[in-house]
Every structure is written in structure tokens, then in C-alpha cells.
Design goal:
The structure is a homodimer of 252-residue chains.
Chain A lengths: L1 E4 L12 H11 L9 E5 H8 L2 E3 L7 H10 L3 H10 E8 L8 E6 L4 E3 L13 E3 L5 H16 L4 E8 L8 E8 L24 H9 L11 E5 L24
Parallel strand pairs in A: 2-8
Antiparallel strand pairs in A: 1-10, 2-10, 3-7, 4-5, 5-6, 8-9
Helix pairs in contact in A: 1-5, 3-4
């Protein structure tokens, strides 16, 4: 497997054509995409080109946001955006030594993560908040279709975001949008010695997203990573297929 | 970055020399390790060579194990081993439609995962249980030292296991033992536009482990994956450095 980044992408702004920018950047590095290549794209560049950005100056916080913001010492306007992006707050807490506390929310698309994935890093200016795209699967498919048309071969696209984990420090990238890439690899039910494997199902899309973090430096300069040489079958997976149902959840 | 597997490794048994087997398999595929190469090794082959395997026929379950086993419909002897490997049971539950329920435990080394990482897949025979190595960091360093001596260059080793996640389906590999590989990459505190990034710290070792899952098929034939071409600095990290302290944990 080879993994490489797309160099020289521009600073993306609302209305820019992400697919065209990737095509041009690949041309500049003399790279053609090949059948089976998978692109992992940081959601931030998708969000920016789709205009999923919010100027904090334009936000009027609700009473609920003001109350929660006081509890965790965050800007009430940012908390208002977090609440708008959420279906539910799962946990909120500020320890005495923290300057800002933690809000773990269930995003309205079902993802459970800090701040409902509302992010102010890599925004274009202080006070700009970036949210997830409205429909990250559709975003992934738009880019996939455009690149497949240009390169004349079947590709896959994962839109990723950077999430923390409950019991482990640091962050890894996970898949929040999928085009053709299977969410989970169904194994054939036997291990190397033919015994039934009841519960093993590699989270293929999340493995790709996590791997992209090895090259996708958070400084935002490498938001598109390409994987070549993997054996995989195209699927109809949606990113929601990765989510554990509330009924099966032990930790919500 | 190039990622490739070590082909032709044997079925490992207690007492076998894992490092020597890797050296021989690499020689057979005409591959020399190079400075900066990182190996991710599935803990199962480490556990097997170190004898961290238990014959379920030799286990006498305690009353606590018998009670918990009844609750989740597992073999009481397997539950006994899970309890011995655990410092605490975090959750246990069996839904009516499940044949076997779920035990989420805190392993005595601090990892929170299903069944305290006790596994019967890829065991050599039915009734054999595989546990984590006693000291996975030491295991990683043993292999790292032997390979560094043979190849004459600085390497890194991650020992991995396959964990589920609370809110996401499927499994990803995570790091349970480290030699020279940093647990977490400390970023320089600014994003692409110079803004302070307060909370971003990529879980480098876990990114490597997750990426290894793309090539480390669960059928057990590819337990050693090599990463080449990454920029990284050797560290004194231990796998415990990845663990969130109980005090900061919102979900224990």
C-alpha cells in the first residue's frame, strides 16, 4: 500500500470547486488517480467550500447556551452553535484546572464527539466556526463522481474529522462521510484456523481515516490523502452505518 | 509512506523467537529494514511466543465468575480469566437477541476494552485463550532491540490489539505496547493560520495501529506490518501514556 498527500492545495473558501482543485494539484505533481485509489479528505475543506462556516459575531445565544457556556467556560455563541448542531448533550464538565471545559454531544447526524464537531481551528479568522457538512456522504459522492469522471476509473472517497476517544488520549481521524468505501469489512467468519469469528468486523473506513492522520498534518496543509494498492469492494455504505445504535450503546 | 506486510511468518508457539522469525521472513522477501521503519505487530503473536495463553480446561471459575457468566451467557472459565486480567468490570450486559453478552473491563494494565482483551480467535485450538503480554512495552522493546541489532539502524515497534469503540461499530487496532514510537504527537500549538490549537494531539501510535489493520487481515496470516517513510522522532513513550486518567474520564 502506498499513501501520499496531495500537495499545493489552495486555502479553500466558500464556493470554490474542491474536486477541480484536487485535479489541478494532482496534475501539478504529475499524478493520475488509478482504479481503486481511495481519497481521505479532511471535512474542513469540504465544509469551507460548501459554506458550512459560521461567523460567531452573527450568533445570538439562547438561554440554554448561556447556561451551558457558564458551566464549561466557553463562548456562549460557540455553545449556541454546538447546540444547534446537536441532537443531545451527552456530557459536559469543567475540571478546576481546565480553562475551558468539555462538551460531548451527539451531532444531529448521529456522531458522538466533542463540541458536536464545531471547530475554530483552521478557520480563516478568529471567530469563524466550521461545522460538519450538511450531508457528508453526499459531499464525498460529489467529489468521487467528479474525480471518477476526470480520471475514468472507479475511486473511493472518505470525508474525515478528528475525534477524541473516551478512554484514550490524543485524537484520531474517523470517517464522517463515505462514497463507495465500505464502512465495515465483513470478514468471512473464520480465523486462520477456521474457527468462527463472531464479532470481528474491521472498521475499514475508520482505519483509512486514522491512517490519513499520519500524513494529514493538523496544520491544514495536507487535507487530502490518497491510498493506493488496497484490495476493497465498492459498497453503498453511508457513514451512519458506522454508528452504534442507541439501543446497543452502553455509554451514551 | 509505504506500508507492507511481512509474508510467510510461521504459526507461532510458546518459546519461538519472534524477532528471528521476522528477520528470516524479511530475508525471504529480500527486504532489509531501514532507519525510521516502524513495525506494528499483532499482540497475538507476541502473546503466543511469550506463552501468554491459557488452556480453558485448566481454569476453575470463582463464584464471581460463575455469576457474571450466567448474566452474559459466557463460559464461566473464560469469565474467570477475564476477571483475573481485569482491575474492574466497567459494563456487562446481554440483550435478549444476543447469544453472548458483552463485558467491558478495565485491564490491569489500564486498557478499557471488551473481555479485558482475552481472546479465543486465532488460538491454536478450541479452549485456548490468549491474553495480553504481561508487559507489552517490554515485548515491543525486545523485538525492537533485536531488529535494530540485526539491521544496524533505529526502528520503532508498536504492539497492537483490536478494540471496539463505544459509539462506533466495527473494530480498529490500537497500540498496547510501544518501543521508541511516540504515543501522542505534540503539535507546535498553531494551525495553518497561526491560531493556537489547544487540544490537538494526534494519537500517533494508535494511527499506526489502525492503519496496520488495512493490511493485517484478521485471518492471522499478516501479523506484522511495516511503515516506511514517516517523519517521526524516537521517544520514551509507554502505551500507558495513551490512557486517559480516571480523573479525566467522563465514561468509566
Amino acid at each position: 500500500m502506498q499513501v501520499f498527500s496531495v500537495a499545493g492545495l489552495p486555502d479553500f473558501q466558500p464556493g470554490m470547486d474542491l474536486s477541480q482543485a484536487i485535479i489541478e494539484a494532482l496534475a501539478a505533481q504529475n499524478t493520475e488517480l488509478m482504479a481503486g485509489d481511495i481519497l481521505v479528505i479532511a471535512h474542513k475543506v469540504v465544509s469551507k467550500t460548501e459554506g458550512a462556516v459560521i461567523d460567531i459575531e452573527q450568533v445570538t445565544p439562547s438561554d440554554e447556551a448561556i447556561q451551558l457556556a457558564a458551566e464549561v467556560n466557553k463562548d456562549p455563541r460557540k455553545v449556541e452553535v454546538i447546540l444547534r448542531q446537536s441532537s443531545r448533550i451527552i456530557r459536559s464538565m469543567k475540571r478546576p484546572e481546565q480553562e475551558e471545559g468539555t462538551i460531548i454531544a451527539e451531532h444531529k447526524l448521529g456522531f458522538i464527539c466533542a463540541n458536536a464537531a464545531v471547530d475554530e481551528s483552521n478557520a480563516d479568522h478568529v471567530g469563524q466556526l466550521i461545522t460538519l457538512p450538511d450531508d457528508p456522504d453526499a459531499s464525498a459522492m460529489n467529489v468521487c463522481n467528479a474525480l471518477e469522471k476526470h480520471f475514468g476509473c472507479q475511486l473511493g472517497v472518505v470525508v474525515s474529522d478528528t475525534f477524541g476517544r473516551p478512554w484514550r488520549l490524543g485524537q484520531t481521524n474517523v470517517a464522517v462521510g463515505l462514497a463507495r468505501v465500505p464502512a465495515i469489512t465483513k470478514l468471512d467468519g473464520s480465523d486462520a484456523w477456521g474457527r468462527e469469528l463472531k464479532v470481528t468486523a474491521p472498521a475499514f473506513a475508520d482505519e483509512l481515516a486514522a491512517a490519513s492522520g499520519l500524513l494529514m498534518s493538523k496544520d491544514g496543509k495536507c487535507p487530502v490523502i490518497i491510498f493506493r494498492g488496497l484490495a476493497w469492494q465498492a459498497s453503498e455504505s453511508k457513514a451512519q452505518d458506522i454508528l452504534r445504535s442507541k439501543r446497543e450503546d452502553l455509554f451514551r
